[in-house]
Amino acid sequence: MNFLTLLQASSGQSGSGWMSIAMIVLIFVVMYFFMIRPQQKKQKELNQFRASLKKGDKIVTVGGIYGVVSEVRDDKLVVEIDSNVKILVDKSAVVKDMADTQR
């Protein structure tokens, strides 16, 4: 009789252990889909945008500098920020396309 009681008690405990593990896994899955995956998608889109930059694109940099791309190099851009004022900017510093706004 005591043996059956011990089996029932231990089976209840192992179910609780599996439930705890399932909850931890569920928390990681939710974190992945709500935090990690959207960030990876956003970073991928930003990398594609930077790779597709061409002469004449209106951009804004991380530092808030607005300008027009006048030359594209491997990993750098020459950006015209005013008439006859050009600066050399790393591609990773470009964050937005401002083609739809007025300069």
UniProtKB/TrEMBL annotation:
> Per UniProt, what is one Pfam family of this protein?
YajC
**Which GO BP terms, alphabetically?**
protein transport
Chain ranges passing through the membrane = 15-34
Instruction: Identify the InterPro entries for this entry.
Output: Preprotein_translocase_YajC
Q: Name one GO cellular component term.
A: plasma membrane
* Topology of this chain in the membrane: Single-pass membrane protein
Keywords associated with the record: Cell membrane, Membrane, Protein transport, Translocation, Transmembrane, Transmembrane helix, Transport
Q: Where does the protein end up?
A: Cell membrane
Family in the record: Belongs to the YajC family.
* UniProt name for this protein: Sec translocon accessory complex subunit YajC
Which source organism does the UniProt entry give? Answer: Candidatus Merdivivens pullicola
Corresponding gene?
Answer: yajC
